Amino acid sequence: MHTNCYTVITFAPVQGFIEKSLKLRDLYGSSFILSYLACAICYAAEKQDDCQVVSPALINVTQGTPNQIIIAGNFPETIAEAAFNQAWKTVVETCRRYIEQTLNTFTYTWQREWNAWSNHAWEFFWTQSTEEELSQAKATGITPEDVTLMTHARRKLNQIKTQRNWTAINWQGESSTLSGTGAIAYPRMTDETHPLHSSMAQQTQDINQFYHQLSQTLGESILAPSERLSIPELIKRLITLDAIANQFISEKDLPSIEIPQSFVDLNRFDHKLWAGYFQGDGDKIGEYLRQLKEQGEDEADSLHTFSQGMMEWGKNLKYHLPPTQAERVKRRNLDADGRIIYAGGDDFLGVLYRSPDQQQPKLTPQDCLNWFYQFPQIWQQHKHPITVSVGLVWAAPGVPQRDVLQHCREAEKSAKSKGRDRLAIRILFNSGNYLEWVCPWWCLQQFLESYQDREGDTLVSLKQKPKGNKKTPNWTHFYNDVAQLESRHAFPGQTQIALGLFELYFNYQNRQCLEAHLWDTSDTDNQPRTGILGNQPDAQEKQNIKALNNWVINLAKVGFHLSSPGTDNS
After folding, report:
1. Average pLDDT, the chain
2. Contacts of 34 (CB under 8 A, 6+ apart)
3. Which among 251, 248, 250 has a CA at the least distance from the CA of 235?
4. What mean pLDDT comes out for the span 153-181?
């Protein structure tokens, strides 16, 4: 793919737009809107004769389209921004008209506020790089000689993104009960108010009446009567309805849209259910693409091929959610234990949960682990030699979803910072406190399933020969030993106690494995093994000692709470 010009486009805010989500429906709606806006830009680019979309490679997958778009050719900023703005205005206007037509007994004077959100909700970034511009940058020494045209364009975009040009939307009156920012959307929200003549009681009554009728129309599973949403929050809630989505996008572009009733399943708070949120990302993608370029492959072609493979993988990820087809038939329930919120190429976000049903057991942490034991094989189906880092948050029912999402990102970053190619397991309690343990994929199942309590029971032995109601080994033994030794400050300064405990509960062979693979090594087949504690040891030995001790201590704490009745939905 040869061109003398590359155009790179993105928009913001992305994380902030996703974060402000209370329900699973909001989260899904946010992902859908972001993907739809990115698709609108891609469609507009494809209509230009001299333009070709390099990434994303598949733009008919409306859920999970990456928001950074790379185009080979001269795609004018005016056309790109016009397509983006038109797509967003279509979303806004469709939702507004739906409400006004559905609840036609109200007098609506809120047009000005909807126009403000239609015009100032997003920041649009566009840049281009040409062969002539790149040659000048190399001649002046600003850009290294090995930088390609596409890389130069992407670097320019990162520079432009630091120059914010943001227009904030002010509001008056009561704020949204969801995020605390933005005015409560109701028909007369833009009416002039005066402290001497306006009645707060009347305004509150108008709001209550509007949301009561809207909740009755949509259903309490979609909008609770007590909720008071701002305009963007209302849009995210409504956009998941087929009646709205189908008005502005054709059926062929909706392969991943869920039916509205399917969102009723996850209500962590009312049903007191723990759930497993997970977020992941491919490792060292940029380095992998650079290696392809060094091997003589065209940069744009290799990126396009990679993007296509990852988008196909993301599109099919939801079909790999647990349980297996055989288990679903056995349970007489064909529903998956969870949802994929987005899978935009190499990054993805999902949640594992099981609907409360007396006819099937509740989801346990062990169910989540069983799926993640198989996840490396699921990941490799995109057929690119890259690894993945994932953060799994087993969240208590009382933790707000926005906090759970923040912990998901932090857990993923923890998996990245501690060596990549691994899973970070985080237990998140109602208080906001958490415990975390990080382990590479290759030894995750090996270690956790080899735990043996003082009675000689392991997970495998109890599956083969259960002992009454005892289904898992007793992690309390390991946990109490660690707690006693911590209280006596027995761990600092040496690793023999930690290694001895690990050998006692996980056997001598696993201790040997742990000691041999603390840092990156190769196995007997000369295949690289990512280090259990990280890629390479710290220059200060006391930090390495501390890292090993913490790894064993955190294993005891996380293992105990994963098997505890207080966190397993029992």
Report:
1. 86
2. 14, 17, 18, 65, 67, 342
3. 248
4. 83
- The rounded Cα 529 to chain-centroid distance in angstroms is 27
CA 148 from centroid of its chain's CA atoms = 31
346: which 2 tokens? 């190499």
The answer to whether 551 and 418 are in contact (CB under 8 A) is no
Identify residue 204 by its one-letter amino acid code. Answer: T
Token match 């970070």: residue?
Answer: 424
Q: 203-254, pLDDT tens digit by residue?
A: 889 999 999 999 999 988 788 889 999 999 999 989 888 788 777 655 444 4
Are 395 and 407 in contact, with CB atoms under 8 Å apart? yes
What was the pLDDT predicted at 521?
82
Residue 465: Cβ-neighbour burial (10 angstroms; 0-12, 13-18, 19+): exposed
Nearest Cα neighbor of 16 from 406, 404, 400, 410 is 406
Collapsed DSSP state (helix, strand, coil) of residue 381:
helix
Residues 362/273, Cβ–Cβ less than 8 Å: yes
Report the alpha-carbon angle 15-243-88, nearest 5. Answer: 40
Provide the token pair at 283.
Answer: 């490792």
Q: In 3-state terms, the chain is what percent helix, strand and coil (to 5)?
A: 45, 15, 40
**Residue 325, Cβ neighbours under 10 Å: how many?**
9
Output the CA–CA distances (angstroms, integers) from residue 486 to 436, 479, 552, in the order listed. 17, 11, 12
How far is the C-alpha of 34 from the C-alpha of 63, rounded, in Å? 8
pTM, rounded to two decimals:
0.87
Peptide bond into 144 cis (omega under 30): no
Return the beta strands (E) in 331-387 as ranges.
339-344, 347-352
Find out whether the peptide bond into 195 is cis, omega within 30 degrees of 0. no
Please report how many Cα atoms fall inside a 13 Å half-sphere around the Cα of residue 169, on the Cβ side: 19
Encode pLDDT of 364-390 as tens digits: 999 999 999 999 999 999 999 999 999
118 dihedral zone (left: phi>0; alpha: psi -120 to 50; beta):
alpha
Distance CA 64, CA 348 (A): 8
The partner residues of 70 in beta bridges, in order of sequence, read 8, 55
Residues in the chain: 570
Evaluate the omega torsion of the peptide bond into residue 440 and state whether it is cis, within 30 degrees of 0.
Answer: no
